[in-house]
Specification:
By secondary structure, the protein is mainly alpha-helical. It is built from one helix and no strands.
């Protein structure tokens, strides 16, 4: 019976795992925010180039 982990050890291990997951999740949220900002910039560039393409196609 002494080989079984006691409840306190199990709880501590779960807390450590939970903290690691929280760190990973925070990193994912940060990466997601950076990608969102990059996509917004790309969309703005595309929107800026669309009127020029439309007017060019009407002329030619």
């Amino acid at each position: 019976m002494s080989s079984e982990p006691n409840l306190q050890d199990v709880v501590l291990k779960l807390i450590e795992q939970n903290n690691k997951l929280i760190e990973q999740n925070s990193l994912i949220v940060q990466i997601n925010a950076e990608q969102s900002a990059q996509l917004s910039e790309v969309l703005l560039m595309l929107e800026d180039s669309e009127p020029a393409q439309r007017s060019g196609s009407l002329d030619g």
